[in-house]
T9SS type B sorting domain-containing protein
Amino acid sequence: MKYTLVLFSFFLSQVIVSQYISIDENYTAQQLVENVLINSNCASISNVSVTGANFPTGELSYGYFSGAGTTFPFQDGIILSSGKVSIAPGPTTPTADEGENIVWNGDPDLDQILNVNSSNATVLEFDFIPLGDMISFDYIFSSEEYEENTNYPCQYSDGFAFLLKPTGASVYQNLALIPNTTTPVKVTTVHPTITANGGCPAQNEQYFDQFNPTEYPTVYNGQTVVLTAQSSVIPGTQYHIKLVIADEDDARFDSAIFLKGGSFNLGIDLGQDRTIANENPVCPSEDLILDATATGVQTYQWFFNNSPITSPTTDPLLTLPAPHDPNTQDGTYSVELVYNPTCSSISEIKLEFAPNLTILEDVFTECDDDAVQDGIRIFNLNTIGTQIFQNLPTGFTVSFYNDETSTLPLPMNFTNTTPFQQIIYARVDNLGYCYNIPITLNINTFNEIALDQTVYLCTGSSIILDAGSGFISYKWNTAPVQNSQTITVTSGGEYLVTLENTNGCFKTITISVEESGIATIEDINIIDIAENNSATIIPSGNGEYEFSLNGINYQDSATFNNLIAGEYTVFVRDKNGCGVSSEAFYILDFPKFFTPNGDGINDTWKIENLEKRGLENSKIYIFDRFGKLLKQISSLGNGWNGTFNGNLLPSSDYWFVLELTNGKTVKSHFSMKR
């Protein structure tokens, strides 16, 4: 068992070691450039030199690396570092931080072009004469300053540059730039969103590869994706190139440039790769011509995925006419330029062809869906995007833009800015401008007058509800659903009807049916033989009522004041037209005076209508001012004639007591005038 464990540990250590790159510091500068970086018989190279650290241990800051058998993107190449390259192999711990205790000089050209103060510079430089009109090479920038879970990428970066100029010229250009910009590649210009310690937003995140895990082929904490440095050049002209990396401001934390072996291309440039990832694939209707024209070339040989597609020819053009088939044409196209029997150069380009999509719909009509019918509404562009193309492949989405050249996508919940009709443009994400489809958004309105209503239904009857004419469809919320302009209902409630106009727009209105009915007069509360004779009507019913004593003039109040004695008829009318109820009532009062002079007018004093109220058995007593009882009269008799024992009494005030059979007693006075 002991031997088995040792053997297993040995193999495990071999597996782990094989995961890391290896470093060889025995290459000369000439070998690094001619045999590793360029590796071509066509190269005309001179004045090669390299400078860097000279650690007491003899270790260098430059050398050859091999990534064979690892997951590192390059199989081999050159490494230039601001520290020891011997510690470049993984894992990523401990930190590579070897430049602080042996500080060597920076580089003035790097300082000038990056506006920094550098130290610990490693420089590989040489002269060359290009055969074609373009040079390029691939590289990766790795750094310990890519520290995950810190804000270091927001603040710190070592500097590097690839400096190119015609020999004898005084001004360099920097080739180590973020593609299509003038921004140098650095930790601070290429990183994802940083959240630690205040953090910072992402910078050119598409060119950041990863924060490396502990078990990784190199020691560095993070790295960029594979980038390409390139420049136009004049064939036959000698150039000087200077590849330099250095610590910036301080000597802490090492960084490295990895230059891909054999990637230094001195031939021609076929252009940027045309891929879906780059959002510039070859469009279905595009006739593509690849041009490899170069001075001094004897023959051109074209390849597709390393298989010849033409015989050697003096024609530098490869024409790929539309239409295209992505299934058979996607791949790497390359051309071998043969200058002489011992000198040839290969240039390549990766091409992907956009799928040929069928436009199914490009006009979308919606209705203005709010109360203000102004031709403005919110469109769900995400839904529209799924309806434009008949055969949009899985994984592709559609974005929308204000105009043909805009690069700022519209929000997916888009509110049109031009009322009633607006044209926007749809593009398929990752397919660039292959599809730049004008999309017409139409906004119809519902401008017809259709208002909510309230109507009244008399108890026991029916009513016709009318939604109005001029609409092409009606839909009532009845059971079953009715689709006519009018319906007949026999009960109250809320009836909803959805109307469709000639624009195909809908509006729902509510017709509230409130039940109403004729009143039942439950009671009449009478206050009479008082200073203010009044009657209050007590109705019942589900209507809304108003009241009148003459059937002409109505009031909302159920109370009538200051009534004189006599018979009345109260009319109770339903305001909603469901009928009128009526009932008679009597107001009782006593005469304030009488004149017993025999003229037939007011000759006697009596209280009228007691019998009409069922009070005919009430008792009435008359007294003089001194309280002497003069007479007791009946409510049904002729009244008092102003005499006592047959003698005429004088004009004066007299008092009475009325004892009503309902238990009420009224006391007051009246005058007799002769």
